[in-house]
Design a protein that fits this description.
Shape: globular
Strand order of the largest sheet: 3-2-1-4-5-6-7
Distance between the termini: 24 Å
Structural class: alpha/beta
CATH superfamily of the largest domain: Glycogen Phosphorylase B
Largest sheet: 7 strands, parallel
Order of helices and strands: EHEHEHHHHEHEHEHEEHEHEHEHEEHHH
């Protein structure tokens, strides 16, 4: 019986998913170690859980392993990765630099994991979960190779295998896939892409490459209702970055001639200033008002969804894994208009809980989607909202899906999508 879990992450900012995993899995395991660098936003949300221990490292350990790096890069699997990159025509000075950083960061995580004496003494009682199919997964695989009775699993999202977001999607994947007990993709689209475009070059077994949906919590109670109002309330929620293309929404609304619209955007980012300039041009339109909320706590976003009758959630991203923001909107019965990229079509079913846009939508495509909501009868709109909420409840309720992750971490692989 596996009673103990190590959650591995390498980010200088503690992502929400680490907090969620730790809180939810703390009910399934007697002890959880969270292995992570020192982070700017701390671990206040999980450090208070009695069964959770945080293991971090500072600059001294960082430099010690930097000194050891020349030895680490001559590992057998690292040299094999270099040969693989050369065979694919991707070997370059930049590749070698990124590979050295990859190995160095992984070595830091591995050293923290191996500080756990109980794991070394009774590996059959321990599982390791890497949050990303990257540096942490390599560390988990290295520990698994040394202690075969440890169960080692990695989640896999989008950036790890998406060439739009990551120039080196193949890096060390051969070794990780070969050693890890399971690589659990959170989107079928990303799993298929990995199998067809990356893993196909390895000649390895693929039965450990699975689909395990993640999900989100519904933080506030709400019911599907239609409140009388003389405007459409539209929401978007994302980082304001080039890949998210939030300005497309603003440019589309410049051409809107229908009933009044209130558009609220949650999130900021490197292109927030540019978005403000585009939105400034909407000031001349009498039928469109915009509120750029900027960076907002996730609880406040959920509270907004619960307290407002939102008519439509829009996502026009160029690339996605399985968008949590769409799941969160649907948890509150909000229909979605989104580009057909990544795993979005695994959430949005055209005409049932929203509509899919082309990967590169025109402004007219976005306006057509908004018009569908504007012209919809009350009964049809209630059905659309109910279907959206049911999609979340049936497939993306994290309280249910976490039990699947607990099973695979314990070694029970009977449940999968």
């Amino acid at each position: 019986m596996r009673k103990n879990l190590i959650i591995v992450n390498y980010m200088r900012v503690n992502p929400t998913i680490v907090d969620d995993l730790t809180k939810l899995l703390s009910c399934q395991f007697d002890r959880i170690l969270v292995v992570n660098p020192q982070v700017r936003n701390g671990f206040a949300n999980i450090a208070c859980i009695p069964s959770v221990e945080i293991k971090t490292f500072g600059w001294l350990r960082y430099f010690v392993h930097l000194v050891k790096l020349p030895f680490s890069v001559f590992r057998k699997e690292v040299l094999r990765d270099v040969k693989h990159a050369r065979r694919l025509g991707k070997l370059s000075a930049r590749y070698l630099k990124e590979l050295a950083l990859f190995v160095h960061r992984s070595a830091l995580l591995e050293s923290l994991i191996l500080q756990c004496r109980e794991l070394r003494r009774r590996p059959e009682e321990w599982s390791i979960l890497s949050v990303w199919y990257s540096v942490g997964a390599y560390a988990a695989a290295r520990v698994k190779a040394r202690y075969p009775k440890v169960r080692a699993v990695s989640m896999a999202h989008s950036f790890e295998v998406d060439p739009i977001k990551n120039d080196f999607v193949e890096m060390m994947k051969h070794y990780m896939q070969e050693v890890l007990d399971e690589v659990a993709f959170i989107a079928e689209d990303r799993r298929r892409y990995y199998l067809n475009e990356v893993a196909v070059h390895f000649g390895l077994r693929n039965d450990n490459i699975t689909l395990r949906y993640w999900g989100c919590k519904k933080k506030f109670e709400s019911t599907v209702t239609i409140k009388p109002k003389d405007y459409l309330l539209i929401v978007s929620c994302s980082t304001v970055a080039k890949v998210k293309r939030v300005d497309l929404i603003a440019n589309a609304l410049l051409k809107w001639e229908g009933k009044p619209i209130k558009w609220v955007h949650f999130g900021d980012g490197p292109q927030f200033g540019l978005l403000k300039e585009v939105v400034g041009r909407l000031g001349s339109k009498q039928n469109v008002s915009v509120h750029l909320a900027g960076r907002v706590d996730n609880n406040d976003v959920h509270r907004f969804y619960a307290n407002h009758d939102v008519d439509l959630f829009i996502n026009v991203s160029l690339s996605e894994g399985l968008p949590i923001s769409i799941m969160e909107a649907m948890a509150y019965g909000i229909p979605v208009l989104a580009t057909d990229v990544g795993g979005t079509k695994e959430i949005v079913t055209d005409g049932q809980n929203g509509w899919l846009l082309p990967r590169d939508p025109r402004e007219e495509d976005i306006l057509d989607g908004i018009q569908k909501i504007a012209g919809m009868a009350t009964e049809s709109l209630i059905a659309l909202k109910t279907n959206a909420q049911r999609t979340w409840a049936d497939r993306f309720n994290i309280d249910r899906n976490i039990k699947d992750y607990a099973r695979i971490l314990s070694g029970d692989t009977s449940c999968s999508w």
